[in-house]
Amino acid sequence: MTIREHSIYDCILSNAQNFAGETALVSGDLRLTFAEVPLHVNCLARGLRNTGFEKGDRIAVLLNNCAEYALLLAACSRIGLILVCLNTRTSADEMRKVLESTKPKALLFQTSFEQQAETLRDLLPARQLYSIDEASILSTSFDQFIDEDPSPLTEPQPGVDEGWLIIPTAAVDGIPKGALLSQRNVIASAAVHLQHFGREAIKGHLVALPIFHVMGLTSAWATFISGGKNVLLKQFEEKQAVKLIDAEQLTYFGSFPPVLERVLDTAKEAGSGLESLRVVYGLEGPQNVQRLHEETSAVFWTGFGQAETTAFVTASPATERPGSSGQATLLNSVAVVDDLDQQLACGEEGEIVVRGENIFQEYWEMPEATAYAQRNSWHHTGDIGRFDEDGYLWYVKRKAEKELIKTGGENVYPGEVENVLLKHPEISECCVIGVPDKTWGEAVKAICVCSEGTKLSQDAVRDFVGEQIAGFKKPSQVIFVEELPQSNNEIDREAVKAKWGA
Asked: Which of 158, 180, 198 is where one domain is finished?
């Protein structure tokens, strides 16, 4: 490391000294203080190294939120391993594509995902599978990684700009891209949390969102770095969430539909005012934002970001400029440009581009895709937006070639679902669009043209899609039509939206 670098492991050591007896991590019955964290990290890092893992090796992780996940992240940062964070909600075939591109040395999983792990085993060079629950014929125990020596390792730390995490992004063309993040990226996003929310507001974090999403990931590290307490929810469950907020006096959490609505409904039923809550941030409908402000003392913050930007690059309280995505953070330059990358004036719509220390390193082993996204020294988000005269960013839509449906915090590319639908022998044409949904923000809707004389049911089409890609990508509605509107010998997507987008 150089004289100007400060790593995740350095933060762990600093906190062990500055907040020694305070609670750092709660996961079920396990409670770790800041003084205890480096001892666990050292044992795990030494055990990984002794097991044969070397700097630059990848480990795929198929886990819900748990202490092992958090400690593994820390240990990998110490010895230079790269964690491939699989989305547990995707299908085994989608996971296979991620593993084929990242080539991990091992897969770490929970027994609830044993079926997927067995399917993926042949993609691992040494067929190394490790279970954090119970070892089986299929797997070895996670405990094998844990050395008994808690003393600090003597080998040099990796640089903070080296790869640390790979977050698979949604597949525009059927192939997920792995966004490689560094320690500097995550520390920068932690600084954004501190800048906007303040240390007191993030001193108690309900980790309701999965760690394999950048919002869950960066919120957890922002809380840890600032000396706060992270309380992990294995999976989101509203009754447990409300119980933990009150019992642990938690101050904030990240939210995508329907998380906030369910927390508020449950709190109301339980007679809880969520008195400790100070901040909720993410993407939410105005009705739930209003409820949060009326029913609690918390403030809802909104913003704009993606996996490639390690969470938000713009942010503001939702009521400050309702409908906007906030203003650029102190760590980011954000602009709107035309197709020639010329910056546009206020009010003009163009592609949102970003610079800053939280911008990802690269798409794993995709140099052309990386160069295209990072052309002209800006990260090109693929999103269309505009700025108003006060510097607030207004999101408009995805670029046509990167059109996106956002359902319950998950990204769904219409092209990916359309590719699956067109594999069905009885579907000749289709168009997939996003439609408003009260619970999930947006829902997936498919408009299909079937072969002559064919009769398909909505459930049959949904089941066909669900057999091949993640369940959240299945159309919630399927409509059968005789023809789709055309323009220039292509399906006119805007005309489809106008006719069937309600």
From this structure: 158
* 313 belongs to a structural domain: no
307 domain residue, yes or no: no
Tell me how far apart the alpha carbons of residues 266 and 208 are, in angstroms, rounded to a whole number: 15
Residues in a beta bridge with 435: 443
Residue 81: give the domain boundaries. Answer: 7-158
Q: Which residue has the higher pLDDT, 300 or 438?
A: 300
Asked if residue 30 is part of any domain, the answer here is yes
Q: Give the tokens for residue 500.
A: 């069937």
Write down the mean pLDDT value for the chain: 93
Domain boundary among 158, 192, 222: 158
Q: Which amino acid is located at 30 in the chain?
A: L
Residue 421, classed as helix, strand or coil, is helix
Asked if residue 422 is part of any domain, the answer here is yes
Take residue 2 and report the two structure tokens written for it.
């150089």
Please tell me the pTM assigned to this model. Answer: 0.86
**Out of 27-36, 221-230, 379-388, 416-425, least confident range:** 416-425
Distance, CA of 121 to CA of 130 (rounded, Å): 11
Cβ atoms < 10 Å from Cβ of 29:
5
Write out the H or E segment, with its range, that includes residue 119: helix 114-120
Quote the pLDDT of residue 405: 86
Q: Domains in the chain: how many in total?
A: 2
117's CB contacts (< 8 A; 6+ apart) are 62, 107, 109, 129, 138, 139
Looking at the chain, the number of H-run helices and the number of E-run strands are 14, 28
Q: Is residue 87 a contact partner of residue 212, using CB atoms and an 8 Å limit? A: yes
